[in-house]
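Reopening: C-alpha cells for the S-adenosylmethionine complex, inputs below.
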Amino acid sequence: MGNIKSKRPVSGIFQRKRSQSPQTDKAIASKGTASNKTPTSCGTSKSNRPFTAEEAPYVLPADLSEVDRLTQQHYMFRALLGSLHLAPFRKKLNKALDVGTGTGIWCMEMAEKHTDCQIVGVDIATIQPSTVVPSNCTFQVVNALEGLPEFQDNTFDFVFQRAMLGSYQDEQWPVQVAMYKRLCRPGGTVEMMEFDGHLKGFGEHGKRLNDLTEKMCLARGMNTYNAIRGKEYLEKEGFTDVHEVIKRLNFGSRHGNMGTLAVQDFEDLYKGLGVLMVQFNFIGEEELKQLIIDWKAEVEMEENETYIDLYVMYGTKAGEEEESVEAAPLADPVPPPSSSSN
Ligand SMILES: C[S@@+](CC[C@H](N)C(=O)[O-])C[C@H]1O[C@@H](n2cnc3c(N)ncnc32)[C@H](O)[C@@H]1O
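Re-run output (same inputs, fresh job):
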C-alpha cells in the first residue's frame, strides 16, 4: 500500500449510501445528476472505503489510499514513457484539458512545463490539492458524462485522458471521444493513455484476478477491452494522423524498480477494485486478501512473465492550422521514485 494509510474519506467528499447490486449500478450513468460546482455524493462500502459519485459508474474508491496509488502510478507512467504525453504539438499550447484528472498531478506538472498554457483538470472527485497549485492550473468538480457544457466548442489545444478504463460504460466511450473532439480546436490534439484491461503471462492467481476484474466491470456495464480502442474511436471521429504506441510494463522485482512498482500498483488497484467485487459477492473479503498475496508470490516466479500493455493513442482534429512550432514531447528522463516494498 501507499505510505499514508487512512480510512478517512478525503476532505470534501461526503458519504451517502450507494446502490448495492450490479443491476442497479448499470443504470447509474443515465441518471446524470451531478452538480458542476460542488463535490458529488458518494457511497460507502462494507470496507469503509468511500466512493465518489452515485451518478457515475466509476469502479474505484476515492480516499487517501487511492490518492497514494494514483500518485505513484503517475511517476510509473512518466518513467515508462519518459514524458507526460506522447503526442507532439503543432503549436504552442494555450489551453489544455485533463478529463478525470484524479490527484491533478499531471495538470500541475504540465502547468510547470508550459507556463503560458492554462491547464484545466476536471473530475467527479475532489482529490486535487487546493493549495500549492501553479497559477496557470485550475480544477473543476464536474461529471464528464454530462458532456462538459461549461466549456465551449474548440476551446482546447490539447485534450488528455489517462486511466479512464473503469470510468466509462460501453456506449459512453464513443460519446466521450466525440465530446473530446468538440472541445478540441481544429489542429489540436486528443491523447488517451490507457492500460490494457488484462494482465498477460499470468499464472492461476493472475488469471483469477483478471477474471474477477472483468466480471465486476461487466456488472458495471464496462467491457474491459474498450479503453484500448482509442485509435478506432479517434479514426471514426475523423481525426487525422492517428497513432497508437504500446509500451510494455513488466511485473516482478527481477525487472528492477519499475517491476516492483508495477506489482505495488496492481496490488493496491486490486484492493480498490475488490471493494465492488466483494460487494457484488463475486469473492469473499478474506479470500480476496489471500488471492492478492498469492498473486504477488506468483509474479515473482521465473516461469511467469507477467506484464501489461500501456496504450497511448492520439490524433489531430482535422481543420485549419498550418503554422507549425513542432514541439516533441518534453524529454523527461526522471527515474521512478524508489519503491517501498512490503
Ligand atoms: C484511475 S483514476 C485516473 C486519474 C488520473 N487521470 C491519473 O492518471 O492519475 C480515474 C479518475 O477518473 C475520475 N472519473 C471517473 N468518472 C468520472 C466522470 N464521469 N467525470 C469526471 N471524472 C471521472 C475518477 O474520479 C478518478 O479520479
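The chain has one domain: 22-316. The beta strands are 95-99, 118-123, 137-141, 156-162, 184-195, 240-250, 307-316. Marking as resolved unless the reporter disagrees.
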